Amino acid sequence: MMLLLFLIVSILISALIVLFKNKTLTRILTVAFALLLIWFTIFAWANLNSTELTYFTFDSTGVLLLSVLALLALPTIYHGFIYTRGDDAKKHSIYHASLVALMTFMSGAYMANTMTVLWIFVEATTLAVAVLIYHDRTEMALEATWKYVFICSTGIALAYLGILFLGFIYGRGDAPNLSFSSFAHVINNASPLYLKIAFVFVLVGFSTKMGLFPMHTVTIDAHSVAPPPISALISTTLMNVGFLAIFRVYTLFSSTSILPFMNHVLILAGLLSLTIAAGYMLKAKHLKRMLAYSSLENMGLVAIATGVGGAGYYAALLLIVLHSFTKSGLFYQMGQLSRVLHTFKLDECGRYMNLYPAGAMVLLTGMVCILAIPPSGIFISELMIFRGLVVNDQWFVLIATIVLLCFIIYAMSIRIMHITFSGPRIETDLVLPGKINPGETISQFVFFSIVIVMCFYQPPFLVDLINQSFALLPK
Amino acid sequence: MVNYLVVFFAVTLMYFSSADRLTTYIKLIGIQGLLLCGIAIFELKEVNTANLLFIVSETLIFKTIVLPYLLTRIIRRSGVTKVHRLAMPGFYLLIFSIFGLLISVILAKILINPFINTIYTAIALFTLFTGMLLIVTHKLIISHLIGFLIIENAVFMFSLAIGNEMPMMINVGILLDIFVGVLILGFFGLRLKPHTNELTMLKD
Questions:
Q1: Using the 8-state DSSP alphabet, how is residue A49 labeled?
Q2: pLDDT tens-digit profile of A69-118?
Q3: Where is B117: in which H helix or E strand?
Q4: Which H helix or E strand runs over A52?
Q5: Domain extents for chain B?
């Protein structure tokens, strides 16, 4: 019943925000929603592995990702308040109502224990994100939203075809729905060909959300124009939704003979994602697009880690969590950078350390964290992936991954160093640099601190939860 | 009877490859909606009456009336009548389409399943192929929209194949219909310039 209460109250909050269009009331209601989400997460922790409303289960993977969302909720809302403070009441209310709806739909997707329910929530997130990407109402925003909705819809349709192929595996009257638990009973008798087709459709379809090759373009364009707090969510918790959908199907099929096939496909998708990310980051001219390609790189690593198996599963889930904290911190910083420099074009950015030292420190710390340079916790995750590749004798994948990561480290570090310490390549004196309160960087430093601490110490409750998440997978 | 409807559905798909007027495309989308409605009535014998009524009314209202109406509005607004920006000549499209049908039939034979009619699988795969072909070979946004609607019909056709066992799958497919009809066509179709082929403001 708690889940039902959470869903009803959240949708009610979203509706009230749109209905009253009052800025103060919107702020109160949005913060109330964040607190509700935190309370719901605590409830999910307390009721781990219990099922509610037939279609939802508080399983370890879902609770892990829900916890990440709950931790990001308040900072995202806070930075959203700053971003929208100049908007009129209507625009302000639509932004926050959509944000509340998006977080609610993502929570539903994390908890869904049935393929169709998961698909419905994923589809619903597209609706909410589309409104948020279109927030600035510019021609570019319209183009980005169109591309996002069109490619996501195609992806969703393809994912649904994958789900239908799962349905074909069932015999007449075998199961009334496609719940993961009921599917486990028939999976071993299923035709491997159907399973392979279903997996490929699900992987391609949900990679629109995960931001993985071949559907990665959808998120890159969205990042260029989306408000920075929304980019933070698209790059983290929304990508986690896509990962979860693929991971659930992977877990289901892992007991069948197609496990090696799935591993090969994931490693291939991961390597191609890394290649695309490295190629585009080397010629990046737009700061937010560069960060978007960095997300593609990290999702590529997650896919490789999952394909490696064994310790790779732990590495994949740890990377998902740490990437969420690091990338959201960097995107929050983009909001402040745009108010100081009034641009995201790399040629026009520069002298950030002089103009806004706190923000420059965020950029530098974030760069160390996201590039997996020690003491970043992501370093541990990548080290585990490399170890897994060595154990599996996958030397080609190992060498290719390391070489591509070197390109990415080079591409990102020279650009961030340039913004921080050098003058802009193209001088634009038309607008004076903005003044920002250094206090706005607190949330970013807190997240980076978590990522750095994780390099030395991973709390037992987190380790247990991650271990439970892949308990059903072969060791 | 249902097999005739499915074959007629395949004929409309072939016609997509040879047509070059947008109004023809819209008529074909409407006809496909009507055919899917007929297929649903004949095929879904084991579904309860209320659910069948819901499915039939959805195909009639959304696929046959609302979607063609919205597409017509978009075309009238933009003043574009012909698909004159093809990435390849129409003749090659037709050849590709025939090959697509052949491959779909072979795939359907490989994917033979005791619970599904093979002809459904073949035509659904061909529908998916035609939708993809339309998106890849046409440059106008409006053609991409129509390509997506065809893919969506493929999804609906697949869901009909297991509809008797799992009516919920059709209902979820309908959700996708409404999503597309209202959001993509209703909102973006009227705001974007559908005659444009240059969505290139955002690039690296």
A1: T
A2: 999 999 999 999 999 998 999 999 999 999 999 999 999 999 999 888 89
A3: none
A4: strand A51-52
A5: 2-81+89-191
Instruction: Return the higher-pLDDT residue of B106 and B139.
Output: B106
Q: What is the pTM of this model?
A: 0.91
Per-residue pLDDT tens for A147-185?
888 888 888 888 888 888 877 776 555 555 667 777 777
Which chain B residue's Cα is nearest to A156? B176
Q: What is the pLDDT of residues A331-361, one digit of tens each?
A: 999 999 999 988 899 988 888 999 999 999 9
- Taking the CA of residue A28 and the nearest CA in chain B, the distance in Å comes to 30
Q: How far apart are CA A265 and CA A197, in angstroms?
A: 12
**Which residues partner with A56 through β-bridges?**
A52, A112
Rounded to two decimals, the ipTM of the complex is: 0.85
Q: Is A140 on the interface with B (CB under 8 A)?
A: yes
Cis peptide before A214 (omega within 30 of 0): yes
Q: Does A264 share its domain with A250? A: no
List the single residue in A with minimal CA-CA distance to B153.
Answer: A157
Please tell me what DSSP assigns to residue A423. P
Element (H, E) at A25: helix A23-46
Number of domains into which chain A is organized: 2
Q: Kindly state whether residues A475 and A420 are assigned to the same domain.
A: yes
Of A207, A226, A257, which residue is a domain's last? A257
Contact: B168, A173; criterion CB under 8 Å? no
Strands (DSSP E) contained in B55-200 are none
Which of A242, A257, A272 is the endpoint of a domain?
A: A257
Express each pLDDT in A407-434 by its tens digit: 999 999 999 999 999 888 887 765 666 7
Q: Residues A220, A281: one domain? A: no
Question: Do residue A120 and residue B128 have CB atoms under 8 angstroms apart?
Answer: no
Range of the domain at A452: 260-475
Locate B20 and state its tokens: 């070059």
Q: Which residues of B touch A168 (CB under 8 A)?
A: 113, 115-116, 161-162
CB spacing of B176 vs A157 below 8 angstroms: yes
Q: In A211-286, where does DSSP find H-type helix? A: 217-225, 228-235, 237-253, 259-282
Check if A216 contacts B (Cβ < 8 Å).
Answer: no
With CB atoms and an 8 Å threshold, state whether B165 touches A173.
yes
